[in-house]
Design a protein that fits this description.
Layout (H helix, E strand, L loop, with lengths): L8 E3 L5 E3 L10 H8 L17 H15 L5 H8 L5 H4 L4 H7 L1 H17 L8 H21 L5 H8 L21 H16 L2
Antiparallel strand pairs: 1-2
Helix pairs in contact: 1-9, 2-3, 2-7, 2-9, 3-9, 7-8
Amino acid sequence: MADAAPRAWQRMLSGRRLDLLDPSPLDIEIEDIAHGLARVARWNGQTHGNHAFSVAQHCVLVEAIFSHLNPEQGREGRLAALLHDAPEYVIGDMISPFKAALGYDYKAFEHRLMAAIHLRFGLSPQLPQDLEALIKQADRVAAYLEATQLAGFSLTEAAKFFGRPKGLAGAANQSFHALKPLAPNAAGKAFMARFGKLKHV
C-alpha cells in the first residue's frame, strides 16, 4: 500500500484548518495571525531584552512608520502595511539570506498565502507596485531601527544593509527611537488593537 500523502494543512487555534498549498481566505482569521506573529522572533531571536522582538511588534512598527512617512495614505495602505509580514504566522520569519537560498518555490508559496490574506481583509490580492515600494521603504526603516537598537548593529553597518532612515524628524512621540520588546501576549494585543482601529477608519 502506498504511503498516504503528507498532511498539507495546519489547524489553527480558532479551529480553522488552513491548506498550506492552496490557502483559502475563508480559513484565515486575524486572531490566528496576531497569535502566531506574536510568537515568531525577528532576527532569529538575536536581540537584546527579556523577550524576543516579535514579528507582530515589527508589523505595528512598520505601519506606524508607513503612516508617518505617508500621511496621505488611507485605510487600505495602512492595513496592507500592518499585514505585510502576515504570512509568517504560518511559515515563520526566515532571514533574508535564507529566503534567497530557498528561491522561487518559497516565494511562490508566500505570495499565494499573502494573496489569500489580502482577500480575507478586503485588499487587492496583488498590491500596486507604488504601494509595495512605500511599504518596503517603511520596512527597511524599521529594520534599521531594530538592527541598531536591538540586534547589535553599528550605525554604519546598519546603514550599509538597510539605508539610513529619512523623514523621521518629529517622530519622537512615536517611540521609534526607544524600541522595547514586548511579551508575546502584549505584542499580540498591540497588533490586534492596531488592526481594530484600521478596521473602523
